[in-house]
């Protein structure tokens, strides 16, 4: 035996192991021997039933195994649950938990000042730990001008209504002239605000529930405010200090800030219609410069033309709609 093993290039011990098949583990790829811990088809179906149940279909396997353990139950590991869900194509959403389809928001178009306003409330830091000051700010969609603002030490529907009433008075808004857009916060949709809007003849418009980007113009304004180089690096000591700072910001924003979306005129110039003369003058300057030195111009001069209409919640055109147009 030893000589035969030497000829074959194997050890005697290996030959002895081969003669005991009951102890041999088949390690060949594609082995028909199933691991002892493999989940049976019956167990697999039971796990799927639990994963897709009303109690667990909105939860992850990590959450499910914890809750089952609290109930004194064990079905399978998180990895096994994820693998089973992947096999049946339910690793993202299960049954009725598929993503909710939001309807398209109402498209609002402003072609002049005081047709559409957007407003919101943002927090300003307070020196008192856990407390904030609240900035109420209303912006005209067409001109981006801040038409009203107030700072208070609380978020309140009555205060919000006062801000809107003040803005309408200052801008001379007539009944049925204005649409006021906001998110779904309680000061925006509360009975006090809705009653005020009805009295003023203002049409309310709201962001869709659970949708965060339906009021982008107000959000962008707050970002501009909080990213100013002179925005305080410490909390405001009192509400008067906060009001003083916001007043300075609004003065700069409305009357000095050359807005990139308005062809670099100020919001107030756009709001009052002065932008038309300003942009016409810029076009004339460029045309004269081209006539004087035409060799410096390879194409048309800059048009200095601002957007005639501003759209809130603009609907995207699908490829099918574009091809049909």
TrEMBL record:
Lipid biosynthesis recorded as keyword: no
Annotated keywords: Plasmid
Against InterPro entries, the record matches this protein to: Integrase_cat-core, RNaseH-like_sf, RNaseH_sf, Transpos_IS3, Transposase_IS3/IS150/IS904
In this chain the Integrase catalytic domain maps to 101-275
* GO BP annotation list: DNA integration
- One short Pfam name that applies is rve
Tell me one GO molecular function of this protein: nucleic acid binding
Matching entries from NCBIfam families are given as: transpos_IS3
Kindly provide the name given to this protein in its UniProt entry. Integrase catalytic region
Task: Give the originating organism.
Answer: Desulfohalobium retbaense (strain ATCC 49708 / DSM 5692 / JCM 16813 / HR100)
